[in-house]
């Protein structure tokens, strides 16, 4: 259950990062409120996951999901660069997340 909360928290991080873009510097009320709500929920779920998961692992996975998801959505929604070098760097982040998960914690 803690892993599920952590994954949802990471996906919500993607949503609130995009929300910040859509809020236009917190000048658009609906997008601003939605972004703040998503931040709170994401941090709450991260906090719940940290009850049993190691902090380095959980935080690394949370930020990794947020980073990779936000870059992918930036490519899809905003036409940001999808250069081979950029995609390679994203693959390295994904490899790091997988490594944190599968390597021994001790």
Automatic annotation (TrEMBL):
<feature type="transmembrane region" description="Helical">
    <location>
        <begin position="27"/>
        <end position="46"/>
    </location>
</feature>
<dbReference type="GO" id="GO:1990961">
    <property type="term" value="P:xenobiotic detoxification by transmembrane export across the plasma membrane"/>
</dbReference>
<dbReference type="InterPro" id="IPR000390">
    <property type="entry name" value="Small_drug/metabolite_transptr"/>
</dbReference>
<keyword id="KW-1133">Transmembrane helix</keyword>
<dbReference type="InterPro" id="IPR045324">
    <property type="entry name" value="Small_multidrug_res"/>
</dbReference>
<dbReference type="InterPro" id="IPR037185">
    <property type="entry name" value="EmrE-like"/>
</dbReference>
<feature type="transmembrane region" description="Helical">
    <location>
        <begin position="85"/>
        <end position="103"/>
    </location>
</feature>
<dbReference type="GO" id="GO:0005886">
    <property type="term" value="C:plasma membrane"/>
</dbReference>
<protein>
    <recommendedName>
        <fullName>Guanidinium exporter</fullName>
    </recommendedName>
</protein>
<dbReference type="Pfam" id="PF00893">
    <property type="entry name" value="Multi_Drug_Res"/>
</dbReference>
<comment type="similarity">
    <text>Belongs to the drug/metabolite transporter (DMT) superfamily. Small multidrug resistance (SMR) (TC 2.A.7.1) family. Gdx/SugE subfamily.</text>
</comment>
<feature type="transmembrane region" description="Helical">
    <location>
        <begin position="58"/>
        <end position="79"/>
    </location>
</feature>
<keyword id="KW-0813">Transport</keyword>
<keyword id="KW-0472">Membrane</keyword>
<keyword id="KW-1003">Cell membrane</keyword>
<dbReference type="GO" id="GO:0022857">
    <property type="term" value="F:transmembrane transporter activity"/>
</dbReference>
<keyword id="KW-0812">Transmembrane</keyword>
């Amino acid at each position: 259950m803690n892993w599920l909360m952590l994954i949802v928290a990471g996906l919500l991080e993607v949503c609130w990062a995009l929300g910040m873009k859509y809020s236009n510097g917190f000048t658009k009320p609906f997008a601003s409120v939605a972004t703040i709500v998503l931040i709170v929920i994401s941090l709450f779920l991260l906090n719940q996951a940290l009850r049993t998961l190691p902090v380095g692992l959980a935080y690394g996975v949370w930020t990794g999901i947020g980073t990779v998801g936000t870059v992918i959505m930036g490519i899809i929604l905003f036409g940001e660069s999808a250069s081979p070098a950029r995609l390679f760097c994203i693959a390295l982040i994904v490899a790091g997340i997988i490594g944190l998960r599968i390597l021994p914690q001790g």
